[in-house]
Amino acid sequence: AHEMEDGSATPAASPGPAAASASTPPPRDAFSSPDFSAVDFINRLFPDEASLAQVDPLIERLRLRVRKVDDEILAAVRSQSTGGARAKADLDQAKQAIVELSGRIQDIKSKAAQSEHMVQEICRDIKKLDFAKKHLTSTITALRRLSMLVTAVEQLETLSMRRQYRDSANLLEAVDELLTHFASYGDIPKIADLQKRNTAVKQTLRGMVFEDFHSKWMPTTMEQDPAAAARLADACLVVDALDASVREELVGNLTNKELMNYNSCFDELINKLTLENIERRYAWIKRNLKSKEAMWRVFPARWRVPQLLCMSMGKLTRTHVLEMLDTSGPHEVQATLQALHQTIEFEREMDEYFGIDDAIVGAADGGADGG
User: Fold this and answer.
1) Closest CA to 235 of 216, 264, 209, 210
2) 9 beta partners
3) d(CA 252, CA 208)
4) With pLDDT > 90 as the criterion, what percentage of the chain qualifies?
5) DSSP class of 9
């Protein structure tokens, strides 16, 4: 028999033709076939007695093959043993690497937690510093305003004693604006003292302004003292800077003063008032308005002092006429119509007289609003 590459054997050729035709070579992988049968395999190798002469050589070759297979098995076992050790070493190394990696991950997590904690502390410190900056800025601003307020109140006191009304008016507005920032600090002694001093200065200025108008707002005085008109005009600026009630009181006092003059001129004629001499009153009002134009100019145009005075005199005249009509008997139609015509003419003249001023005042007010 001949040995195959995979270890199977084939029978040698038999001397007879019958034996040669009866023998068939086994498959190369006969031993690995699931249908392998040892008896059939041997019968195929030795189909007759003549082929038994090849048994010994075949046995020897099979022994060599067995030894070769044993060597291969031993080499495979040794290789597997060495591979197992190497695999175990690799597994241990992998486990060690996993442990080290786990340690590194824990270390990274720990450092990340520390970093997060550090960031939170930094943010907390930044917030504290930001609040401190805001408070410090507010404090510095408040101190600057307080310093400006103290200086302004002191200057206002000095200027008010000198009756420098124009500068005082500017400072009054500045002090009032500064005090608005300290409105909620009225319980602080320094702020309360400044508020009291400001109120006292306002009262002082109010008294001085009323005193100057009482003594200087007269035709003769203003003619003799050229600076009187300018001083009274500046005093009006102070009145504007004070409460609105101060202006109403001042205008009311001056209007009452003029009404007293008007009333004193015609008081003795009240009982003798007739519709025929009503024109005298209108003429007096017109002369009074025109003769005192320099006096009206000391007031700001938006106050409309002459207009208010004219309206007040018209109301007083109406009262006198109504009293006259109630106390006297019937009047002639001609006298009534003439008085009515004179009244309408007086109203028309006053409309024309104040019309230009009203247009100017309206334009000035519009310009001020637009500015």
Assistant:
1) 209
2) 3
3) 17
4) 27
5) E
